[in-house]
Amino acid sequence: MVGLKEELLKSIWHAFTALDLDRSGKVLSHNLCTVLNVPHDPVALEEHFRDDDEGPVSNQGYMPYLNKFILERVQGNFDKVEFNRMCWTLCAKKNLSKSPLLISDEDAFKVWVIFNFLSEDKYPLIIVPEEIEYLLKKLTEAMGAGWQQEQFDHYKIALNTSREGLSAWELIDLIGSGQFSKGMDQQTVSMAINEVFNELILDVLKQGYMLKKGHKRKNWTERWFVLKPNIISYYVSEDLKDKKGDIILDGNCCVEALPDKDGKKCLFLIKCLDKSFEISASDKKKKQEWIQAIQTTVNLLRAGSPPPHKEARQKRKELRQKLLAEQEELERQMKELQMANENKQKELETVRKQLEAAAARAAEEEKKRLQTQVELQDRFSLELEREKMVRQKMEEQVAQKSSELEQYLQRVRELEEMYKQLQEALEDEKQARQDEETVRKLQARLLEEESAKRAELEKWHLQQQQTIQMTEAEKQELENQRMIKEQALQVAMQQLEQLELERKEALEQYEEVKKKLEMAANNTKSWKDKVAHHEGLIRLIEPGSKNPHLITNWGPAAFTEAELEQRQKSWKGKKATSE
């Protein structure tokens, strides 16, 4: 009943706003009671509309009376079209545009009723752009034309910039202007409006001519069938004047296809609790459409759901409410952000004022600082002169220190040069050691040759041993000199000139040793020749003793210590004999 009351209120609102209620309120109330099949209450009517300042019309308005004595008593057993037509009659003359329209007054009435169905539940009543688009699409589809989305988008943009939606009379002007039905004649537009009116207002889900089989005479008669959410009515013709019967639908009904029989095709059967109805459609497509439409209606009855167009309207409203709630939430958040921004601005303003005050204080302090600075400049001028004198003295000291530093650097460079010369001297010494090593290797090779012929060089060996001993003494002397040189190298950085002299002396001594070695080698060769000539033979080299060998500066000795002693005794005996 709440939904019915809201639908009635929209039509009543148009009539209410179009009338002078103080003079025509009784007429409106009487007409409402008549078309809504509500019993009249003349006493309440006269009490409500009594002619003084204390009447409820003046203090409480018309709504309390309307709710209490009319709307709350409505049972639903009234003709909706007749009710809407009564309200339309009261408001159309005052509000309908005087400019010529491409639709008739009857079509305008139907558009007005459709507007009440699709408008928002708030007053003054308007239809939002989404519902306008839905209605225009339905009309375009009913006319068999193509929908011009781009054209409507331009119209929607222009509409949104000026207001939220259209009133009923503006919607009638829009459809009557032919803006979205160009190329269509008046009859086509009227048929489209009537089709949409039947679907949305009269809840006509489907209608058309079909053949129905009689229950008594079993003959087939053509009837105009009208499918609604809970009933199928059939008439003699489509003018709906001569109604022949109803098929009451509920959740227990079903519909099924039948095979062709008795010369009839495209048959289907509607089964109800008390009766079954055989119907023949004009073709297979119509048959399938009717079966599907009736089955959908039965399924909605079983589920307790409203008709599809009402459910779709409710979903669109819920979606708009959701979007509106989101938009309000967004606006609330924007307001909060704006308030926060304003608070920040206030804080910034406070900070700015504080900064200005701080700047004023800073300017005062700067002024004091400048005065103090002037005094300090006078005070520090004398100190500056003294500082200049001190700086001059320091510059002189720095110049002196720079000169000393330059001398020190020159001394360092000289020492570096001496170090390089010392390195060269060390390289020369290293080369001398290598030459000495070469001589040692040569001497070792000579000793090996001598040891191979020691059997025939006994006398010569004694002299050679003496020579070796002398050489060892000289070598020891050379080793001592080398140690002295190494010690001298440690202090070479301080005594470079002395080291150079010692190195020259070492080289001279080395040359002398080489000469002595050469002389010893020559003597050895001459002695070997003499022994060979004197004895006339060369003794074979025998294996040496297993006793440890002597080690000389040039390597292992040619004789063992025992052999050397034996040879010395033999040489001494021969020497004594020869003397």
TrEMBL record:
Tagged with keyword Protein biosynthesis: no
GO CC terms of this entry: cytoplasm; lamellipodium; nucleus; plasma membrane
Alphabetic keyword roster: Cell membrane, Cell projection, Coiled coil, Cytoplasm, DNA-binding, Membrane, Nucleus, Phosphoprotein
Protein localization: Cell membrane; Cell projection, Lamellipodium; Cytoplasm; Nucleus
Coiled coil start-end: 309-530
SMART domains: PH (SM00233)
Annotated signal sequence range: none
PROSITE patterns referenced in this protein's UniProt entry, alphabetically: PH_DOMAIN
Pfam family, one: PH
Gene3D superfamilies: Pleckstrin-homology domain (PH domain)/Phosphotyrosine-binding domain (PTB)
Record note on quaternary structure: The SWAP complex consists of NPM1, NCL, PARP1 and SWAP70.
Protein name as catalogued: Switch-associated protein 70
